[in-house]
Write a structure and sequence with these properties.
This protein starts with a helix and ends in a 25-residue tail after the last helix. The strands form five sheets. A three-stranded antiparallel β-sheet has the order 1-3-2. A two-stranded antiparallel ribbon has the order 4-5. Strands 6-7 form a two-stranded antiparallel ribbon. The protein contains twelve helices and eleven strands. It has two domains: 76 residues, Arc Repressor Mutant, subunit A (Orthogonal Bundle), CATH 1.10.10; 144 residues, no CATH class. This is DNA-binding transcriptional regulator, ArsR family. InterPro entries: ArsR-like_HTH, HTH_ArsR_DNA-bd_dom, HTH_Metal-responsive_Reg, WH-like_DNA-bd_sf, WH_DNA-bd_sf. Pfam families: HTH_5. Keywords: DNA-binding.
């Protein structure tokens, strides 16, 4: 792809994401779950026909993936890179919309999913603790590796590090967190840590948002494993909130 084609591609993707209804659709899929066009139309607050047009455009630009199961059609983010790009845009967006952070429920800021790994205050605390303890070591600005003591920690948590190294994705990397504006842990290790936390019932997933709730067991066992004192935020409405957007039904 030459420079001109690259510029055109960036502008097309930026224009697609800039449409408020499409932004809502994309952000709603950042929890890694697939949803139907009917569900996404309700989330974006647009008609079914308008949602279909938006979904077709996002699929055309390779931002969404369509899954067909019999008569059912589901949409998900094309891959983790789309989620990472959206998370980065949220960080930039806070600089131009200072009221955004105050409108976001505490639970969503405290812990949420970022595609297939954990984000929010809790995730940043765990990331920082792993670095402080020397469990996680920087290879460069975009990659981490585990130390011997870090591998021992993962073994205690039941995470098979050797299996993660065989996956066709980065093992461990920083992912910029939009609410904290600091990195949390991404990559296959970050995904495995989230799945372990869910399996062990340290966190529970909300059904209608990306929010994660830290359980009493999670406060005790995560705190013990990572040598942290963890607190649960005050409960607020858990549906994801975003800055008010003008109503637009455009393609």
């Amino acid at each position: 792809m030459n420079v001109e084609q690259h510029d055109i591609g960036v502008s097309q993707v930026a224009a697609a994401i800039a449409e408020p209804a499409r932004t809502k659709i994309l952000c709603s899929l950042m929890d890694g779950h697939a949803r139907t066009s009917t569900e996404l139309a309700a989330i974006a607050d647009v008609s079914a026909s308008t949602a279909s047009a938006h979904l077709a455009k996002l699929k055309e630009l390779a931002l969404l993936r369509l899954h067909v199961q019999g008569r059912h059609r589901y949409y998900s983010l094309a891959d983790k890179r789309v989620a990472q790009a959206l998370e980065a845009l949220m960080v930039i967006g806070q600089n131009t919309a200072p009221t955004f952070n105050s409108r976001t429920p505490d639970r969503l800021q405290f812990a949420r999913t970022c595609y297939d790994h954990m984000a929010g205050t809790l995730a940043v605390l765990l990331h920082d603790r792993m670095l402080e303890k020397g469990w996680l070591l920087e290879i460069d600005e975009q990659a981490y590796r585990l130390s011997d003591s870090g591998e021992a920690l993962m073994e205690r948590l039941g995470i098979e590090v050797n299996d993660l190294n065989t996956l066709r994705r980065r093992f461990a990397c920083p992912c910029l967190d939009w609410s904290m504006r600091r990195p949390h842990l991404g990559g296959s290790l970050g995904a495995a840590l989230l799945q372990t936390a869910i399996k062990r019932k340290w966190v529970t997933q909300d059904l209608d948002s990306r929010a994660l709730a830290l359980t009493a067991l999670g406060r005790k066992e995560l705190g013990a494993q990572f040598d942290l004192t963890l607190a649960q935020p005050t409960v607020q409405p858990i549906r994801e909130q975003r800055p008010p957007q003008p109503a637009r039904d455009v393609i």
